[in-house]
Amino acid sequence: MPDSSRDCDQEPIHTPGSIQPHGHLLAMAAGGTQLTHISAGADAILTCSVEAAFGQALDRVLACATGEVLRDGFRQLPAAGPLQLGLVRMHSGEAFHVIGHRAPDGHGILEFEAADEAVGGGRLTLEELYPGVRDAFARLGRAASVQDLADTAAAEVRRITGFDRVLVYRFEENWDGTVIAEDRGDRLPSYLGLRFPASDIPAQARRLYELNPQRLIADVDYREVPILAQRPGPPLDLTFANLRSVSPVHRDYMRNMGSPASMSISIQRGDGQLWGLVSCHHAVPRRVSFAIRNACDLLAQMFSVRVAAREEMAHVQERARLTGLEGRLLARMTGTDHFEDGLLAAPGDLLALTGATGAAVLAGDRCTLVGATPTEAEVRRLGKWLAQRGQEPVLDTNALSVLQPLARDIAGIASGLLAISVSQIHSSFVLWFRPEVIRTVTWGGDPRKTPQEQSGRLSPRTSFSSWAETVRWRALPWSAAEVEAARNLRNAIIGVVLRSAEERAELSGRLERVNRELAAFSYSVSHDLRAPFRHIVGFAELLRETEAERFTERGRRYVATIVEAAATAGRLVDALLNFSQMGRAALVQVEFDPAVLVAEARRLLTLEQADRAVAWRIGPMPVVQADPAMLRQVFQNLLSNALKYTRNQPEAVIEVGCETAAEEFVFHVRDNGAGFDMAYAHKLFGVFQRLHRAEEFEGIGIGLANVQRIVERHGGRIWADAKPGKGAVFRFTLPRRSVPPQEVV
Hints:
By secondary structure, this protein is an alpha+beta fold.
């Protein structure tokens, strides 16, 4: 069974190869006046037979006294669109309206429409129609709404044309059409409020309406008049032809409607896109003049201008209202460190910006929900789906389940989705939701088409009786102003984030320079101070050894104090030098077993342990990828601290172990020593920070700062938990894979 919509879309309706019988057609090659195409039966307007007229100049074969005038007018035709060249009378006395245009394929085309005085009630010129058109313009100008405009347009077109029924037909977003206004007599049924499927006016027919706003079918049962060509070739392009024969499918459609005659005038927006149609029907064959059709075209243009003005006014008013909300949201965002905090500070404004019933902000690992929304897990799945679609700045749909069938499960909350991407790097989105609105649509007959079973030719439906359908899985559509507001908010968020990133980058650069200068200074000072302190210790020791007999007891205490103070200062300088070098040393990562480093650190602590009772509990260790020299210092410092702070325990218990997580190893060193108050834990890893008095436990306060620096350079983190008198546990992590060394300045 063929695809009816596809067949309809592919029908070449602009090149039918024939015209309707109420006129004649002559065509000339591009740039010339020699006839190349002539409609059959055109002998009535020629001085010779059709066969003899091929290749002849136009003014030589026309059977009228104004052939030269038509020839000159023809040469001045615009590039596209029909132009009336005048009313001519043939030698036979028959009158014709002559309409000319240049076809898209370059041919010049003249159409001769029979000027029957009965056509259009005898009103044959635009001048005669002007008073009625002026009154129609005045009535359109007084219309207060789009509905009033449509009602007025339908009534005025019917008054001018005399058709039995005139409809104003508006295209929906998916190209379905809805009859929004109607003016009619008693001979044809009402179609007001009915909806017609997009397939009734297929895509190529809509394109033709955009190029040529007029179409007249005077008698649906007409016999096609073929167009004869001087030589074989492609059929003549009749895009702008008024006499163009129409599709047999459409003629069947008209018969099924019970409308032997019809006329359509397109209503176009300022950008040329179709807004709708003025569609006229008659219960018997009817022909209206070119002047009347032009008058209706003028009315349609006036209607479109008025509609555009009303729609633009509504849009401006809505944008003005939403601009205030945008300003408030922007002010809150700029006042916070994270844009999402500003957005969520007043949830009502975030929802009102787009008229949504729910919203969600996805920023990194954070997901915040406002109002009626799907669950967090469902929102995160939507975020992944949006990310897979690519960096689409704005997505708006009132039928989410059409794009994502799994969304039917959340249709009651999120049939409508408006989403903006707020990062070009990360999957961060702001999403607004609208619920499903179940409604009933009344169609002008069953919208489905079926091909004729015997011929397989596409056939329109045969019934136009009202056919109701319940429409589900759709929300109220997002307005252009709401989508624009969302897009503006996206730009504002990106601006805030970029500005924040620039400020952080500037501060980071300044901090990096300062830290480098500080590191260089500390390295220089500590290096230069090592020798003087060693000299002080050395000479004080010599003084104590060589001059001891001459010192009093007080003098010996003074010298001992000098030696001890200088030695402590020397150790402090060494530690500072080591700390400054830690950020400058290259990180060499290899695979090894850290248990070896733990065993080595225990051996080095043998003297400190002396004869104390220490229970070492060393658990199994995984193979890691790290710098062994630096990791040795980590274990050395942590085990030394554990041994030091357990000296007052009858038996020290020191435990070393490791747990394996999904992406990292978590090491721990636990003891049962003095512990500390967690209120001061933030000072733990600072340089020269001590949580115990020096009289209780010796130390210079740099060891843990070194440990933190080493761990962070490996891409890990370190923290501690403790209670006073109950011991402490230090934990640090190492990634399970080698990572680029973190710069420390």
